[in-house]
Amino acid sequence: MDLSSLEIFRAVALEHSVTRAAQRLQRAQSNVTTRIRQLEDELGTPLFLRDGKRMTLTDRGQAFLDYSERLLALADEARQAMHPQQPGGRLRLGSMESTAASRLPGPLSRFHGQCPEVELEVSTGTSQALLEGVLARRLDCALVAWPEDKGPWQEEVASLGLEALPVFEEELLLVLPAGHPPVDGPADVRVNGLAGFAEGCTYRQIAENWLSADGRPQPKVQQVGSYHAILACVAAGSSVGILPRSVLELQREPSRLRQLPLMQVPTLLVWRQGYATASFEAFREVLRNAG
């Protein structure tokens, strides 16, 4: 087992295809097939289920992918550590959907202009999933939300073996259908649905907690995959939603929905304690100046 084999395995796992993995790696298809078979023989277990040309990970293959991601990340980190003044290699950034849409385009453009040699990979998810990704070394750093009612972030972040830097401050809005009567508190909300992202989304949890205050029943959550879908559900009159003002301001037309400011929530850049490559240091500095 060597890093080259792990890179080939990872490419096939991500592409679900030997052909596409070979094209991605600029290798002969026969070479990729041989290396995968050699790796499976060495490990003594099949890593893929083969359905025609489609390659799907087995349970053991999924577990091995997690180890492969960590080993490849550690190797890349070690290479970068040998050149502490020269940004390069790969930087894997996780971000909430809202932050990626409303906050990152400018900083990412500036970072690419300053560090064109860095291969930046950006993925999105809920704050909980992003934190887990950083801890499992699937991500190098992530932008997550930290609500005030969760307590001071410094202590809990440190207890997880992470470091953090506040980079943005978001004003969260509860949005309601346009014809909804004025709202001063949870008791005034007449819609029992909440359109939101999957569990693990900090903003969704804030909305659930706020709406169920004073013993009110938990709202019925309609899980969606985008802020456009949240706004559509609210406009249809079936739900309320929660989103940062910065996302609402991205809409082409002014929103006709009723809005209620709820709270200010910081967005933190988090990373593992001790992680300090030149690429990450440069990216952190760009974000520090963008807040």
Automatic annotation (TrEMBL):
Domain HTH lysR-type residue range list: 1-58
Signal peptide: none
One Gene Ontology MF term: DNA-binding transcription factor activity
Keyword annotations: Coiled coil, DNA-binding, Transcription, Transcription regulation
Coiled coil: 11-42
PANTHER family per the UniProt record, alphabetical: HTH-TYPE TRANSCRIPTIONAL REGULATOR (PTHR30126), HTH-TYPE TRANSCRIPTIONAL REGULATOR GLTR (PTHR30126:SF40)
Family membership noted in the UniProt record: Belongs to the LysR transcriptional regulatory family.
Full protein name: LysR family transcriptional regulator
